[in-house]
Amino acid sequence: MAADTTNAPAKIEAGTPAWLRGLGGLAGFALLLEIAPRVGLVSPYYLPPFSAIMVALFHELMSATFWTALSDTMRAWALGLAISLIAGVVVGIIIGSSSLLRTLTYSTIEFLRPIPSVALIPLAVLLFGTKIESTLILVVYASFWPVLIQVLYGVQDVDPVARETARCYGLGTFAQIRYVIWPTMLPYLMTGVRLAAAVALILAITSEIAIDTQGLGREISQTESGGAVAIMYAYVIVTGIIGVIVNLGARALERRLLSWHPSIRLDTAGAVR
Amino acid sequence: MLEVRKLRKVYEGASRTVEAIRDVNFSVGQGELVCIVGPSGAGKTTLLKCIAGLLAPTSGSVVLEGNPVISPPPAMAVVFQEYGRSLFPWMTVHDNVALPLKQKKMPAERRQELVRNALAAVDLANVHGAYPWQLSGGMQQRVAIARAVAYEPHVLLMDEPFAAVDAQTRADLEDLIRVLWHRLRVTVLFVTHDIDESVYLGQRVLVMTHAPTVIMEDVAIDLPDERTQLETRSMARFGELRKHIYSQIQLAKQGWRPPGQ
Amino acid sequence: MNGAAVLVRRVAVLLALPTALIATWWITSAGSQSFYFPPLQTILETFVKLWLSPQAVPNVVPSLLRFAVGYFAAAFLGIAIGIPVGASRHLRNTLEPLLEFLRAIPPPVLVPVLILFAGIGDEMKTLVIVFGCIWPVLLNTVAGVRALDEVLAETVRSYRIGRFARLWHFVLPGASPQIFTGLRQSLSIGIILMVVSEMFAASNGIGFALVQYQRTFAIPEMWGGIILLGLIGIVLSLIFRAVEAWLLGWYYGLRRAQRAN
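YS: structure for the whole thing
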């Protein structure tokens, strides 16, 4: 790939533009899903043709079960995410502002962080059965850490001179947080939100599959065991679409907030996918 | 040794076409040190890349030792301006210099010898095990030069190699190039925007016009072969040559075209 | 303060909070009559007796084995597919939306789907891990290959570095920081899938044992399983970090040097 020199105009897009190619990729995949079961590449029991899945999806969109399940999942996701965000920001600012607290808690955080949230499943089942609290335990435990870690990075990045100046001018704790800490921390927090939102969705669905709490995950496992395979795939596609919306939404939010942020941190945004 | 005939390069864009190089003709004899100088936007880098085989010309040809250049030839080595991005950050200095040699199928001892000699020639005998990012800018460029030297090329192409280093380092590196050129008897084609540098280094200076580029003039540098920063740059003849080329460049900037263009 | 004292102090600070927390847990649960929260002492005794004994091997070993096979297969496939896709703009444009969609499907969803195809045996669990872990690696490999430095790519071309050497010395190391980001995400996803697939439908495994203990209200054993999973998560994370530090040492050095400027 020869780099163009300063004289050269931008590379011409040979033929089809990028988005059209992407659309082609998706269409090609759908076509594959349509043909493979029909020609017997895969058994149509395991993988119904794409058209059958679409029909099932269409029917589900008309049914109350679908919308209840969807709202159950989104409720658990949103609630869990909100709790971890608040907890993560509060704990993060408190710990991050004191180097003593940072050193003391470092080992604990590094110790607790890699513990898989799914380890708590049996405990959650014992305590709360299939109620939403079970899901919340998993979601909050998993999405708390990305937020906390990013907030810690953000608070540590605050310019110490600005901090000192604020203190000298007698700004109270809240004012300091609002005017000094928060703006620096914001880009990092956005990265944390993006990571946490994705993780929260995964754990919400995990809980529904493993614990059988209400939601899309439960519909998927039930339709699988009940043999309603086309409907199962319809739900799978829906979870994928939700996942895409959550990812895109988080990225859009991040970009929006960073575009008018004075110190754009290029190496936090877009670094982790 | 190296012949460029009727070289033309046109960039086709979505909305416009840019003729970077219109008609460049020149030849370089064996063992010569030729500088190419021109205003910014003169397509110097485009020219060098066409000669190096990295870019295909729209028409015309580059002939090296009788063979047409269609892809990077083994007898040529290139030193790029951005030394920081041209060295592999995950390899030590030694491995960076040795890598191109591994392609050339030679016994390991010979390869080690070439690497050792090349690093010694650029005065970096004791940083074999360091990583490029541990070195200063000038030292990094020396590593890139050592890598080119170890490759034992017949022609050494240099694309504004000292544009991104400070003036003192640049002076040292210029002298290094002349020393290497004398010792290795290699043919050197040196692209620069620095007129003083081109006069100091070259036996000939090719002055280029603005895009669409042609060669304005082929100036013979009749300064003595032994050159030093202090002496040579204060010679009267140096000043004359410099002034001449400078005024040519000014003409070029004002859009001068040779008759018939 | 001499060296030893500094070391002691550092270890003390490291262990202060965890020790305090564990001690609090021990003390507050010591006389516990609560069914779900037995004394920490009981939990630890059961843990050693059960999970660290040969009795646990038929559950722990298959789990870890399935995880290892699935994870490394996913890593290999993700990198192998990601490299050509990342290198070709057309392939990237065509496949990226599709891949982003497939990646956005929460991996545990694959468990019921793959049960359809592969039953509830070892293959299903390993396949689930492969299918879940491949996406972060693949997409990050694509991003890493795409972001390879252009000047370095041209240097590789100018020195006629062959296809395999190019892959091994340029593409892989160049993309490795980004690839490791993907591998790290895949690690957490793999652990989740290992556990969930066993909780859902299995005849052996840590997840399976955990569910059994929970259903039969063998509470201390269940807690032991939770602690074991926690330890596995920590150990895997440490191993990953060690490997990353070994392979990406050059990258940290490079970034440090860049930040210093």
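YS: worth flagging: Residues 51 and 224 of chain C are 7 Å apart (CA to CA).
IM: good catch. Also Chain C has a mean pLDDT of 89.
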